[in-house]
Design brief:
14-stranded antiparallel beta barrel, alpha+beta
Length: about 475
């Protein structure tokens, strides 16, 4: 989007040209209102249609004061007249009073009678906010305009304008929300018995250690501010809050949903750098924060990471990265951990518009705490369809994970060979772009996971359905 404002009365608000020509031929306003040269105008009796036409003509002739005054007369007859508010917004924009003009455009939007008028008013409000260097407000109005676009071409142009404004805006928001009915909100075992391979003793699990059904609600709000930018770099200050709340359908003694709920607060700094060519981008992160679990502080963390993205061709993208995180636990003593992670991923754009992705992840946790030191390998394959199936765009994923603890203890029993878990998981996510509001669209995910372990307490099965909301652009 540019700061240039379209001050012509557009289709939804404009009087037809033949009506204006009729008034011009009649010469009603030339002598009464002095369009050829505003002076001491003599009063004239005008119909509402004539005043409307004259306001549009005055705007085209570069006479914003006249257009504004004529619109005031229209509003005296009807305070909810969207065309009059729209004309006043255009008149104020010609006078470069962008803040006041946006308020008038907002009134035109709220009083509009058709989607076409709403689309034009929202677009005008976005242009006015942009011209006044209020980029966040411009993004808000462009999201409004998307909902009322008359066709796919206009919608695509509005989305492109939104992306251009976002690129200019130093402030960036992101919000995600989801709620998940699940048959295993506590990661509980699928059997009341606790069998350990190589140990002749069979234990029993408390009800709180077995799978419990319920709901998991997650909300994440992220905010970043651009500190500096050039053709080769960008620096952003970031903040994020992630809240996860659990409700158990049938509570058991000793465990409630609050005991399983968590909150993460994170602050960080990101540095984006262009590599030796435009095909290569580096991202460096420095983060710190705190994790609460069960309502109490669990640990503080500090993390540093680096990621590289590279286009290998028109259809191939490669990414890889690593991070190191120190975790300082509140309790018990000696449980502090250092976590090293790494990943590599490959994305392939298909001819029909779909995409295939592959990713391998590794995570190593080093700690003196009991049952904390581990390493984990995970592989994930995904496929995103290139076109919608009915109202939904579908994405499929399938993965496998291997988690190993070199030493593990259950009560006073030292598990021979440590603990080994193997998990297989998969899911499908449907995104309903046609059911969005202001660019936010609903999603529906169905996921399932099955884990097998040499300790039956960690033989886990879970199936969940997640209803979510995300930004389409």
């Amino acid at each position: 989007m540019t700061a240039t404002l379209n001050t012509k009365a557009q289709t939804g608000f404009a009087l037809r040209p033949r009506h204006i020509r009729h008034l011009l031929r009649a010469g009603v306003f030339l002598s009464a209102l002095g369009l050829a040269g505003i002076g001491a105008a003599t009063p004239a009796n005008l119909t509402l249609a004539q005043a409307d036409a004259l306001a549009a003509q005055a705007l085209g002739a570069g006479q914003p004061r006249l257009a504004y005054d004529l619109s005031k007369g229209l509003l005296q007859a009807d305070r909810r007249n969207p065309r009059a508010h729209y004309y006043q917004a255009l008149a104020l924009s010609q006078a470069k009073a962008y803040g006041a003009a946006e308020k008038k455009a907002a009134l035109a939007y709220w009083h509009a009678k058709t989607d076409e008028q709403r689309f034009q008013a929202a677009n005008l409000a976005a242009q006015l906010s942009f011209a006044d260097d209020r980029f966040t407000g411009s993004q808000f109005w462009l999201r409004r305009a998307v909902d009322h676009a008359p066709d796919e071409v206009a919608r695509a142009q509005t989305v492109t304008a939104f992306q251009n404004v976002r690129a200019r805006n130093p402030l960036r928001f992101d919000f995600r929300f989801s709620t998940t009915p699940s048959d295993n909100v506590n990661n509980g075992a699928n059997s009341p018995l606790n069998v350990i391979d190589g140990v002749p003793v069979v234990g029993t699990l408390s009800p709180s250690a077995q799978a419990l059904s319920g709901f998991v609600t997650t909300a994440q709000a992220a905010l970043s501010y651009r500190l500096s930018k050039s053709e080769t770099h960008e620096t952003r200050l970031r903040g994020r809050v992630n809240a996860r709340r659990v409700d158990i359908s049938d509570p058991v003694p000793g465990l409630s949903g609050d005991d399983l709920s968590s909150t993460v607060l994170e602050l960080g700094l990101s540095q984006y750098l262009r590599g030796t060519s435009k095909a290569v981008t580096w991202k460096f992160d420095l983060d710190g924060g705190r994790v609460w679990y069960g309502g109490d502080p669990l640990y503080d963390f500090a993390r540093v990471g680096a990621t590289r993205h590279q286009r290998l061709g028109a259809r191939l993208q490669l990414s890889f990265g690593a991070s190191f995180e120190d975790q300082l636990y509140e309790s018990p003593r000696g449980a502090d951990s250092t976590v090293a992670t790494g990943f590599a991923g490959l994305g392939v754009n298909l001819t029909g518009g779909g995409q295939i992705g592959f990713q391998v992840q590794y995570r190593d946790t080093d700690s003196n705490g009991v049952n904390r030191a581990s390493d984990q390998w995970t592989g994930i394959a995904s496929y995103q369809m290139g076109r919608a199936l009915g109202p939904a765009n579908l994405e499929f994923s399938l993965g496998i994970s291997q988690l190993d603890y070199s030493s593990y203890q259950v009560g006073f029993i030292v598990v021979p060979g440590g603990r080994d878990d193997t998990s297989v998981f998969g899911g499908v996510t449907a995104t309903f772009n046609d059911w969005g509001y202001m660019g936010f669209v609903p999603t529906l995910s169905v996921t399932t996971e099955r884990s097998e372990s040499n300790i039956s307490r960690f033989d886990v099965e879970e199936t969940s359905i997640t209803l979510g909301i995300r930004s389409e652009f």
